[in-house]
Structures are given as structure tokens and as C-alpha cells.
Amino acid sequence: MKNLVILVAFLSVFSSCSKDDAVTMDSTGYYGKWTLVSMSGSIPNSETTGAAMEWQEFYLFNTNGTFTKSRERNLVKTSISGTYTTTTQSDGIYFELTYPNDSELIGNCYGNLKEVLYLTVNNSLSSTWKSCDGPGLEYKK
Length: 141
Hints:
By secondary structure, this protein is mainly beta. It has one helix and nine strands; from the N terminus they run αβββββββββ. The protein has one helix spanning 2-15; strands at residues 32-40, 48-49, 56-61, 66-73, 76-89, 92-98, 114-119, 125-127, 136-140. A hairpin with a 7-residue loop joins strand 1 and strand 2. 14% of the residues are buried. Residues 1-24 have low confidence and may be disordered. Keywords: Signal. This is Lipocalin-like domain-containing protein. Residues 1-18 form the signal peptide.
């Protein structure tokens, strides 16, 4: 019985220790330009990068709560600006982007004027659009 208590105590101590995967970017680390670096679809191993991607795009986050999203597709450049807020949730930092009007650049699941992105543990920015069969989009600063 004594050995069982020691074993349970030992397992409790070591199972409670784990690597913290929380996003640790400070509040000013996300300002600036985030460029699309990879796209993926719902089919396994469908990731494309660089010039092979269907389009090129970036977000520019300003310190005053505004952003610009720009895309180049088939040699046509399109841009739109809006406002954003950030929230820290238990699983990371989220960006809610609000657009002033409808645009083909808005990638979301709901057909409204909002887009949600989040910081990943490797400090890339990822779109939530992939959760409803949109492309998986990953951006790097």
C-alpha cells in the first residue's frame, strides 16, 4: 500500500508538468505586415507556398486599430481597409477584423463583414476560414 501511495504521488508530480504552448507575443508584436506564406485545402497534402499559391496577399496592422488587406490574383490588385480588435482567450490571441462593406477579400464562414484570425504557437497568423471548408491560410511577419 505504501508503494502505491508513492507511485501515485510520483505520477501526480510528473504528469502535472507540461510544456506551456501558450502564445506569448507581446501586445505590440503583431503590428506591421503579415504576408501569406501557405495555403491548404481540405485534401491531405494539398499545401501550396510561394508563387504556386492561387493568390498573393498581406495584412497590414496599424497601431491605431486599423488594417489593410491586399491581394493580387491574376495580375489584379485589390485592397480594402477596416478596423480590428484583439482579444486574449484561453487558447491564444484572436483578431476580429471588421470591414466597412462587402468584398471578395473577406474570408469567413458567415457571409458577414467580419473575419477572424488567430496567432498560432509558432507565431504565425492563421485564418479561421478553414473551419468551414475555406482554404487554410497562414501568414508570417
